[in-house]
Design brief:
This protein is α+β, with helices and mostly antiparallel strands. It contains 36 helices and nine strands. The chain is extended and about 105 Å long.
């Protein structure tokens, strides 16, 4: 007997809004005491486990075969399958879906058929085929006229549901019919009668009476003209007519998106191939006789044309922009940007942004060629800079966009370098020669002298719009400091730009003062001594110090930014700036104790002075710092054994003991010692123990004694007690000192001593290496005890 229970799939909506399959089971409904109501229960068909237990909400519309909303408590939805296995098999084997006759009385039945077919891919496919084969859509649109003439609202509401369902079938063949010239307006008419609205919309009235199609240049190709009309109307349907798709329908209109996309590609291609059309377009754009309204329409058309090009594939887009370049789009833009009409200039700026974003090198090449023929005032880049400076918008929206384009043009990261020429060098030389003075003109004009004391009128314009403009210019200059090394350095130092910028530290607008400080911080961050000498020579820290002291004890961004700059100088140990700050501004800073930055700077300065007073000590420290390294443990052991295995006769009286690694030894001597060492290594452990029993240095094992070698005319060994003074790192007789045999090999490159009138002074080790040296001491003690004692016996006798 066939299982008549309903089979279902249970899905869970996860955090990423993706559906997770929880399994297949059988659904039933029963009263659940815990949930206090009738609930849906789904038990897995494999093992009978409970997949879902959800109380039925009377306000939720449940439908078969369709994923509906979620239960608020468990965030799980259910997909109720309408067919049994036999029914599904019958559906697959049946030839197709039979549609009811296209009559007014059957519209409700047809609407129900469309709604129930949508959740099932198989039934959706069959419905689409039936609609295509029978020419059903045109019959439905004839019924629409009948219903509208009869004012049959019920029939119109059913037609709305049917047409909307056909859109969700997502079939290109159906769209071709619906969007044809004879059908598209009727389809839009059907979608005006949304059952959820009290009054129908008036989309057709808007498209026929309000929206006007303007041919700025007459289009001779009727197919192109029809394609433009169709694309506009389908875009209107997508954006305005169809309801916003739900989370379950968002992928059901992908074919509609594709239809619009490929239409735009076709339009761009057909216009691009029509050379007569483009030639006429650019001729009228640059013609002085063209009136302003006509020119505005031409520019808007060109802007829309470039926007459509964004749908092209990279290869086709490349061809598109090359075509525009050959037609002279950049000279045309130069003419348009020189006009007074703000709307025309705004559209031209958008077109220019498309060109810069796509191929900045093409724009750079054009302006460099142009510079050879024209004056600086009419260069394209200078026009862009002037529009940025003269932006009438109080919020400087256009200026921000133009500054971004300039930044792209001067960015070395997207500049090409070939075997014959370097675009970076050529363009930056051009920019700093012909354009930089235009960019910095507002900055220099507004910082002619320092701001006077409080209460006096400001000599420079400090209103909000000017402050925003100066902030934009400073942002671009800061970018140049970071990415243009040679050119910007010469410009800043020769034009004394930093001094002028720091005048803005006195601005009443905090963001401008911070921009000026950021500019100086970027310069200091380069740690370039050319910049440092310029800063010190001109005493440019004075403006920063005034701002810091005027800010008082307020804990704000300006305070933190200034402290961070001085902290950078301290951490990076920029000696010249450290000395300059302390020598000139310490009195003003010595009372600042809520951070340790300035006291740390003073300490750095004192350390510098100490090293200057004792240059020999400083040079020794640098030698030690540069020569410190960790010796390989195996090399250490080998060298110690080689030393102990060396005969006393080989040493001359009065000559200090030298290690085999001494640079004065040649390679032959080293190899000789190594050969002897290898022979000694062949001795058996029994021989070593026999020597050990004869060893008279019993005190050698005591931690209170260490071996010390004297270099005062005798190579004899002596025993010295392990006094407190020997604990000093580097002192004779202590571990790690040159006099300790256990550590002599590793301490020689690390430690040194200076002879003064007071005797032998050990240099202090660096604190960050204490841990390393403790490990080395322990290694050294172990090696002392494990080394062969042949030499030790002689020393003790």
């Amino acid at each position: 007997m066939a299982d008549t229970r309903r089979r279902v799939k249970v899905y869970t909506l996860n955090e990423d809004r993706q559906w997770d399959d929880r399994g297949t089971g059988h659904v039933s409904s029963s009263y659940v005491e815990r949930l206090k109501g009738i609930s849906l229960l789904v038990r897995a068909e494999s093992d009978g486990s409970l997949l879902l237990e959800s109380k039925i909400n009377p306000n939720t519309a449940y439908q078969k075969q369709q994923v509906q909303g979620k239960d608020p408590s468990v965030d799980i939805t259910q997909d109720l399958v309408d067919e049994s296995e036999e029914e599904r098999f019958d559906d697959m084997s049946s030839p197709g879906l039979e549609l009811p006759p296209c009559e007014l009385s059957r519209l409700e039945e047809l609407a129900e058929l469309v709604a129930t077919s949508l959740p099932s891919p198989l039934r959706r496919e069959k419905l689409a085929l039936a609609l295509e084969n029978e020419g059903y859509i045109k019959k439905l649109l004839e019924l629409f006229h009948v219903c509208e003439d009869l004012e049959n609202m019920e029939g119109l509401h059913h037609l709305y549901e049917i047409i909307k369902g056909i859109f969700l079938l997502n079939r290109t063949a159906l769209f071709e019919v619906m969007f044809s010239e004879e059908c598209i307006m009727d389809v839009i008419g059907c979608l005006e009668y949304d059952p959820s609205l009290s009054l129908p919309r008036k989309h057709r009235e808007f498209l026929t009476k309000t929206a006007k199609f303007k041919e700025v240049i007459p289009i001779s190709d009727p197919e192109l003209k029809q394609k433009i009309h169709q694309t506009y109307r389908v875009q209107y349907i997508q954006d305005m007519v169809l309801p916003t798709p739900s989370v379950f329908e968002e992928n059901m209109l992908s074919t509609l998106h594709s239809f619009i996309f490929f239409n735009k590609v076709e339009i761009v291609g057909m216009l691009q191939e029509d050379e007569k059309f483009l030639t006429e377009l650019f001729a009228q754009l640059t013609d002085d006789a063209t009136d302003d309204d006509k020119r505005q329409e031409l520019v808007n058309f060109l802007k829309e044309f470039c926007a459509f090009s964004q749908t092209l594939q990279p290869q086709n887009r490349d061809s598109f922009f090359k075509t525009l370049s050959n037609m002279g789009i950049l000279p045309a833009l130069e003419v348009i940007l020189g006009m007074d009409d703000i709307q025309v200039r705004s559209a031209a700026t958008d077109i220019f942004s498309y060109l810069v974003e796509y191929n900045p090198s093409m724009v750079r090449e054009f302006v460099m060629q142009e510079a050879q023929q024209n004056d600086d005032d009419i260069l394209l880049i200078n026009l862009i800079i002037e529009h940025m400076i003269c932006d009438p918008d109080p919020e400087l929206g256009g200026a921000v966009q133009l500054m971004g384009l300039l930044r792209t043009l001067v960015d070395p990261e997207n500049m090409l370098a070939t075997a014959n020429k370097t675009e970076k060098t050529e363009f930056l030389s051009f920019f700093y020669k012909h354009c930089m003075h235009v960019l910095t003109a507002p900055l220099l004009a507004n910082t002619t002298e320092e701001k006077p004391s409080k209460g006096e009128p400001s000599p420079y314009n400090d209103d909000f719009q000017t402050a925003q403009l100066l902030a934009l210019i400073l942002e671009l200059l800061t970018f140049c400091v970071e990415h243009h090394t040679y050119h910007i350095k010469n410009y800043i130092i020769n034009k004394d730009i930093l001094r002028r910028v720091l005048v803005l530290m006195g601005s009443k607008h905090a963001f401008v003062a911070l921009c000026a400080l950021r500019f100086m911080r970027k310069i200091i961050g380069l740690k370039d001594e050319f910049y440092n000498r310029y800063i010190m020579k001109a005493f440019l820290f004075e403006a920063v110090m005034k701002a810091f002291l005027n800010n008082g004890s307020r804990y704000n961004l300006l305070n933190s930014a200034i402290i961070e700059m001085f902290e950078f100088i301290r951490v990076e140990d920029i000696k010249s700036l450290t000395a300059h700050v302390i020598e000139n501004y310490w009195k003003a800073l010595e009372d600042v104790d809520y951070v340790q930055t300035f006291k740390g700077l003073k300490l750095r300065y004192e350390q510098q002075r100490e090293r200057q007073d004792n240059p020999k000590l400083d040079s020794m420290r640098s030698i030690l710092r540069n020569n410190r390294y960790r010796r390989d443990a195996r090399t250490l052991e080998e060298e110690e054994e080689m030393w102990f295995n060396t005969d006393e006769d080989e040493m001359e009286d009065g000559e200090p003991v030298l290690l085999p690694t001494d640079k004065s030894k040649n390679d032959d001597e080293i190899m000789d010692h190594f050969g002897k060492f290898m022979e000694r290594k062949k001795l058996k452990d029994g021989d070593e123990k026999e020597i050990l029993t004869k060893n008279t240095l019993t005190g050698r094992q005591s931690p209170s004694f260490k071996l010390s070698f004297s270099s005062s005319g005798s190579s004899k060994s002596s025993l010295t007690s392990h006094s407190a003074s020997s604990n000093a790192p580097g002192s004779p007789g202590s571990p790690g000192s040159p006099g300790s045999p256990g550590t002599i090999a590793k301490s020689t490159p690390h430690m040194a001593a200076i002879t003064t009138k007071g005797g032998l002074i050990g240099l202090v080790d660096y604190p960050d290496d204490d841990e390393e040296e403790e490990e080395e001491e322990e290694d050294g003690d172990e090696k002392e005890q494990s080394a062969p004692l042949t030499k030790k016996s002689r020393l003790g006798s």
